[in-house]
Amino acid sequence: MGEQKHKAYWLRARVAHKHHKVSFVELFFDLVFVFALTQLSHRLLAHFTLLGALETAILLLAVWWVWVYTTWVTNWLDPDSGPVRAMLFLLMLAGLVLSTSIPDAFGEKGLAFAIAYAAMQVGRSLFTAWSMRRDHPVNHRNFRRMTWWLAFSGGLWIAGGVAEGEVRLGLWIAAIATEYLSPAIGFPVPGLGRSETSDWDVEGGHMAERCGLFLIIALGESILVTGTNFSDMDWTLANATSFLVAFLGSVAMWAVYFNVGSGQASRILAQTRDTGQIARLAYTYDHIIIVAGLVLTAAADEFLLTHPDQPGDTAIAAAVIGGPLLFLTGVTLFKRVTTDRLPRSHVVGLALMLGLVPLALVLPTLALAALSVAVLGVVAIWEQVALGRAPPLEET
């Protein structure tokens, strides 16, 4: 009786052919990380160099990793239970420390970033392993293995926070590489073995909804930032057109991801036996490319609003083309994993996006941005029309 009560209290109850809806506390938790994405976009704008891009990429990989690991945890643990909710609130507090330190993470606030990140990763994994000790022995062992790896990488993060300059950069590259490699090889630990993808019996519908809602909030934040910037500008024809193009870009991204792909992925993940394999590739790895595209696009929108008539700027062009290119690449890989096919519309879209690169030397920012948005629009419409004529889950 005691164990049954414990199980009902700590773990989500699984019901065949149904998935748990995302709870309000999970959405509340996401707000901290959308703030982190905004911080990353602003940091990239302030350090728009190759080194600045590398540093921002490392921070983005860390922010995504702590969010997506928590998403996996709430796939099993009930966020509406008191202890799990308390854990999420503590993670939010640490996440605020993490987010506010992002602008100066490679400066004076590096140690604060590292300690907050390591505490979140190790603390959450220890809590999850302890919560599953009675009723989910397979995942209990999985999270014990994970904790060892996160403790090791956490040491690298903190050591990097103490160090400076190139040493910090090197240690943090080693730390994030360790964290991204470890699940791919099964978190092997002497005496504890390694995890198999079949061990991670995730509920596909919940995972798909979590990632989808996170992207919705991120797109919404991008629209708010664009609107705020536009409200402070002179409402000239060029500025108004730039505002419209930035908004249409968000709409096009929404259509490319949500109009078809997210629903298909949820259904396919619910039907597959090895949900862990697909969830790891499609949602844990592929989605980081999508999120990176959103961050870079947010920077591009800032450039678009402030420099609509500036031609031939390679840095601005890299953001204007690179953001949608990264986003479309991530969505293409995501749909390749979940549907076992490469959408022809997306492949052509990627080729068209690359074809804009030579034009970046002569076109002003506004024209280049309009063309990149047009490519995304073509991809979304093509896929919708093609799937409307084809059998379910196939595209011609």
TrEMBL record:
InterPro entries: Low_temperature_requirement_A
Superkingdom of the source species: Bacteria
Residue intervals passing through the bilayer: 21-38, 44-72, 84-103, 109-127, 147-163, 169-190, 211-231, 237-260, 281-300, 315-334, 355-382
Keywords associated with the record: Membrane, Transmembrane, Transmembrane helix
Keyword Transport appears in the UniProt entry: no
Pfam family of the protein (one): LtrA
Keyword match Transmembrane helix: yes
Protein name: Bacterial low temperature requirement A protein (LtrA)
Native organism: Methylobrevis pamukkalensis
